[in-house]
Design goal:
The complex is a heterodimer. Chain A is mostly helical. Chain A contains 9 helices and no strands. Classes of the chains: A mainly alpha, B mainly alpha. Chains A and B meet through helix 2, helix 3, helix 6, helix 7 and helix 9 of A and helix 1 and helix 2 of B.
């Protein structure tokens, strides 16, 4: 695939195009279409990677790698997977690779459990967190720290849920798991987050 | 996010502010993508090498025919025929034979033929190299960043 500009003198507002259309045009070598995709998704993708990795530079690297991988994948892309979950899936896989390089993870941490029952799920839902917490000066650090201590597979669901506008169906596609599993993981992750944040108060 | 019921954790993480990516992230991504592209195929270059190769092959044909005619005119073919028919001449009259060959062979034609052969070889290599480049898309206006 060779990137090239569209017809000279012909103004096209790529911001109006759907992801799928931009993907098709990019696969055909339209540089402006691919640039529009990068502009559209660089920020959310970076934030997703940052929430998983907790490292600014690594998140930058993963974001770049994900787009390069998407670019090479586009020409032979399967049409059954929409572009948005595909992009997050690529970024997630790259982020997992980076996590593996930094720290050895067990296979069970990266794959959904067979047994849906977990002690974490049994944590009772306590009273609402104090509203004052939102006003704390270090709220952002606190929230990031809470995400960072989650096991990776929970962290991925939380990062996708809270940093993107993906639906659970799309999150499931991105993480290559059934939608119900994604929802279950998210509920468990929230219980963990609640417990972790309660400790901070 | 979809319209799922929101609880206190959702509300709290609603305060999670997006982190600003590096200023040049889009530019960096596009540059890396540009670097990841296979070398572009140039149709004009392929055509140029092809035409030059064809011209060199035609010149090779003409030079070969011309060399044959000149050899016939200068008696070079007779010398060669005599040697092939009587190989003992190589041993008995080596000096005379060598002198006859030096006089009969049209050296200028021969040098031209060898040079043209070299040109055909080089052009053919260039043409094959150009045609075997990956990336089937034609190079017509690649964006340069």
């Amino acid at each position: 695939m060779i990137l090239r500009r569209g017809s000279p003198g012909k103004h096209v507002d790529y911001a109006l195009f759907s992801d799928e259309r931009l993907g098709e045009l990019s696969a055909g070598g339209d540089a402006a279409a691919f640039e529009a995709l990068v502009c559209r998704y660089s920020r959310p993708l970076f934030n997703f990677a940052y929430r998983i990795l907790g490292d600014y530079d690594l998140a930058t690297e993963v974001t770049q790698d994900a787009f390069v991988r998407l670019y090479t994948t586009l020409p032979e892309r399967k049409s059954d997977l929409p572009l948005r979950p595909l992009l997050y899936r690529i970024a997630r896989n790259r982020a997992v690779d980076v996590l593996r390089e930094r720290k050895v993870l067990t296979f069970s941490q990266l794959t959904p459990p067979e047994d849906e029952e977990s002690p974490v799920a049994a944590i009772p839902d306590p009273a609402p967190l104090p509203a004052e917490l939102a006003e704390r000066h270090d709220l952002q650090r606190l929230l990031q720290k809470a995400i960072a201590v989650l096991p990776p597979r929970y962290r991925q669901v939380v990062a996708l849920r809270y940093t993107t506008d993906l639906t659970f169906a799309e999150i499931a596609d991105a993480l290559e798991m059934p939608e119900n599993t994604a929802k279950t993981l998210f509920q468990r992750a929230k219980a963990m987050l609640r417990a972790a944040l309660r400790d901070q108060l | 996010m979809s319209r799922e019921p929101r609880d206190d954790v959702d509300e709290l993480f609603g305060w999670l502010e997006p982190v600003e990516p590096p200023a040049g992230l889009v530019r960096q991504v596009l540059r890396r993508v540009e670097e990841a592209q296979p070398p572009a195929r140039h149709f004009s270059r392929e055509l140029a090498w092809g035409l030059l190769d064809l011209a060199a092959l035609m010149a090779l044909t003409l030079l070969s025919v011309s060399l044959g005619w000149t050899l016939a005119e200068t008696g070079g073919l007779d010398v060669l025929r005599a040697v092939l028919e009587n190989l003992e001449l190589l041993a008995d009259a080596r000096g005379d034979l060598l002198l006859a060959v030096v006089e009969a062979v049209p050296w200028l034609h021969l040098v031209g033929l060898v040079l043209d052969l070299a040109v055909v070889y080089v052009l053919s290599r260039l043409l094959v190299g150009e045609l075997s480049r990956p990336g089937g898309a034609r190079h017509d206006g690649v964006s340069q960043r």
